[in-house]
Amino acid sequence: MSKRSVLPMESYRLAQYAVQVPCYICEGGNSFDAELCRHCCAPMALAHQANAQKVHPKMVAIVGSSGSGKTVYLGMLTDMLSRQSDRMQLLARGAFSITLQQTTVGALVRSEFPDKTPNEADRWCWMHCQVQSPRFKKPIEMIVPDVAGEAILHEIDHPRSYPALRSFFSKCCGAMVLLDAVQLESSEQTQDFFAMKILSYLCELDGDKKKGWPARPVAFVLTKADQCEECFNDPAHYAQTHSSGLWRLSQERLTRRRYFASGVAGACAYRPELGGRVQVPLRIEPRGIIEPFEWLIDQVVR
Amino acid sequence: MVSIRHCWIDVATASVGGVTASLLLWNGLCVLASLVTLLVAAFLARRLLPRKWRQRKLGRRGATAASEKQGHSRKGGAAKPDRTSDDKSNSAAPRRPAKSVGDTGTLVEEMLTQGRYSLLLRPQIVANLSGDQLQRALAALDANMAVVPEGNVLLQTRHAELAPGQSAELAGDRVVRVEGFYLDRYPVTNAQYYEFVAGGGYEQMSLWDPEILPALLDFVDRTGHPGPRFWEYGAFEPRHHDCPVIGISWYEASAYARWVGKRLPTDAEWVKSGSWPVVTDDRVLQRRFPWGDTMDRSRANLWGSGPERVVSVHEFSSGVSVGGIYQLIGNVWEWTHSNFRAWDDAGGRLELAGPMKSLRGGAYDTYFDNQASCHFQSGDSSIARKHNIGFRCALGVCDLAEFLQGGVGAAAADTDADHISEAAAEGDAAQKPEEALEDAMLEEAAP
Predict the structure, then answer these.
(1) B174: part of which helix (H) or strand (E)?
(2) Which residue among A145, A166, B248, B378 is least crowded, i.e. fewest CB within 10 A of its CB?
(3) What is the largest CA-CA distance in chain B?
(4) Residue A185, in any domain of the structure
(5) Is the pTM value of this prediction over 0.95?
């Protein structure tokens, strides 16, 4: 149901309404004062900032099944890079870009993991930031969203159900695929299957061998590696042993790939709650968080 | 070589001078005999050389050289050492002090070198020490351990630390009485732990808790030798000499503590030594950090304030506690004797994957300030051998000889050591000193 509103009859406003502002993600037309894109629900602030700065931010995808640790990884990464200044620095563009960092760190400091990312596209956190490093001549503008794992799976199984994802994936210049190392170790193949699905989906989306996904960098990050320490010794060997399907597919399809291990909690316990139990970190000691991102950015810049 | 040259001279002489063939044969036999003697001497030297000396030599040479000589391949994963063949003579348990020593003096010297001075100050042993030996043991105690006086300490729950501002009753805090004790000024270093490994600590069954004996063979380094997880060939990298030992389980920490005649501190003891409580009007006032109530990251090796790795125990000296204990916060988490108290978490009882032991103090990669405080408790599996967990040892004042308990620490050192030694010796004159020392050590070693 549409809502009636009174607008001042000023010519400049009418002129603004007359011109459609394309969404930076899906390129669908929107009115100039729209907060979210009416087609894909991505924040229109991304488009406004890109237009204002006359720079086209690069996009990087962080994908993984539900519960693989995308929110924690991304939140921790942004917080670490915004606090650190020697290796790489990250500066948020726009207040909305700090929300993810705030919610993640707020939860972790209380020794809790953040809530699950909702499936609705309009509730996802998008992060637009500027990455600076002594290795780069110019700072890099970057857009990284935190999307729900179930939404990614739904989009893979039913293409075009999430227009934002399809548009976003086709424009990405690199990706990080997160796999739960604990689940891999316990021989649960969910992680393996999900990663294979997303890899196949991306290669179908743009299979050009020179510019498509086969030529784009993909970092495979084994998360929660603090709970299976041998993962840190040789992540590639660990993936080969515990996720042989994904290993073969990545060898076959991707030319620029690397395996990493990461962990945020030193040890975990469980708190019983209604309808199950919730994992609780006993201490926060990030390991292997920056390295995959650093490698990916290096590859993207190259 | 001299014999060989001599032989050739003889041959020349014989050929020129026409000396008989029997002389030539005699010379040949001489050469053969000298070669055989050399071979036998080399073989005996290899067999009879003490294992400790060989390991030290290996440690100095570095793991790389040793690997080349022994033909091990790091990437391929070296096989576990055959403890039944080469080390058979050293694997006898329990490993008593060297039998060839024969006198107390050498044994005491060895124990002082190994950092086992606290054993010498036990009531059963102190009587056998000379005045000089007692002085040195007391000096070592004062140099390496700090006294923490008896008193009450407030033990906060995890929930209280994570949600400050709650009342103590609601948060589930409790006041615990702690007796006076000594605590190591520094975490146990690689060099100190090496003495334990080289001294056959992993082969002395009496040092280990019985339940862990089946898993003892898993406590090996990267190359399969007994020792901390990140060592190679039973030795640490020379540059990590003064760094805290890491990659050791709670059981290894406990075994080491027993070997040096100490124990792991309890949770309450650890908190008391860092927060240094003061009781006024029946309320326990204690600091959050050893240096005060405000976090100052420049005083501790934490994430963002250090080089993101373990550093020497002598660094970050500005973070010293009131009692003179270093690096309680940061660098490495420290095992304590207590269990992880997951059951009294005010936010709800936590379920653990297995039994966990309490960890205190934070490490070089601890991210949040509130987790690097004296009150924050974390935990890990007792068999976990992590990259950032070390330990330090404690010693109850009541465990020392009675005459040392009154004038704790430095005060005791100032007393007339000769007089003490004589007085103590009178009470136990019937037993031979070295026998009493050995027996007492074995009693102390039993878990």
Answers:
(1) strand B174-178
(2) A166
(3) 111
(4) yes
(5) no
Q: Is B368 in contact with A269 (Cβ distance < 8 A)?
A: no
Distance between CA A277 and CA A282 in Å, rounded? 15
Largest CA distance in chain A: 68
Residue A125 sits in the same domain as residue A31:
no
Helix (H, G, I), strand (E, B) or coil at B141: helix
Cα distance between the two ends of chain B: 57
Same domain, A34 and A89: no
Buried/exposed code over B394-433 (b: 16+ C-beta within 10 A; e: otherwise) = bbebebbbeebeeebbeebbebebeebbeebeeeeeeeeb
Q: How far is B80 from chain A (nearest CA, A)?
A: 18
**B350, B352, B378 ranked by CB distance to A283: nearest:** B378
Determine, for residues B366 and A283 on separate chains, whether the beta-carbon distance falls below 8 Å.
yes
Verify that A88 and A136 share a domain, yes or no: yes
Per the domain annotation, does A4 fall within a domain? no
Q: What is the CATH number of the domain that holds A225?
A: 3.40.50.300
CB contact under 8 A, A111 and B356: no
Pairing status of strand A263-265 against strand B181-184 = unpaired
Q: How far apart are CA A133 and CA A248, in angstroms?
A: 34
Distance, in Å, from the CA atom of B434 to the CA atom of B400, rounded to the nearest integer, reads 19
CA distance A189 to chain B (A): 22
Assigned domain for A242 exists? yes
Q: Are residues A86 and A233 in the same domain?
A: yes
A278 Cα to chain B: minimum distance (Å): 10
A117 inside domain: yes
* φ/ψ (deg, to 5) at A143: -120, 125
Residue A185 sits in the same domain as residue A205: yes
The amino acid that residue B159 corresponds to is H
Rounded-to-integer distance, Cα A91 and Cα A130, Å: 5
Rounded distance, CA A253 to CA A251, Å?
Answer: 6
Q: pLDDT of B31-88, one tens digit each? A: 777 677 666 655 555 544 444 444 444 444 433 333 333 333 333 333 333 333 333 3
What is the domain range of residue A63? 57-301
Verify that A214 and A95 share a domain, yes or no: yes
DSSP state of B382: T
Q: Are residues A24 and A77 in the same domain?
A: no
Query: How many domains would you assign to chain A?
Result: 2
Q: A90 and A37 in one domain?
A: no
Query: What is the tens place of the pLDDT at every residue in B294-336?
Result: 999 999 999 999 999 999 999 999 999 999 999 999 999 999 9
Task: Please indicate whether, in this complex, the C-beta atoms of A284 and B368 are within 8 angstroms of each other.
Answer: yes
Say if residues B151 and B178 touch (Cβ distance below 8 Å).
Answer: yes
What ipTM score was computed for the predicted complex, to two decimals? 0.88
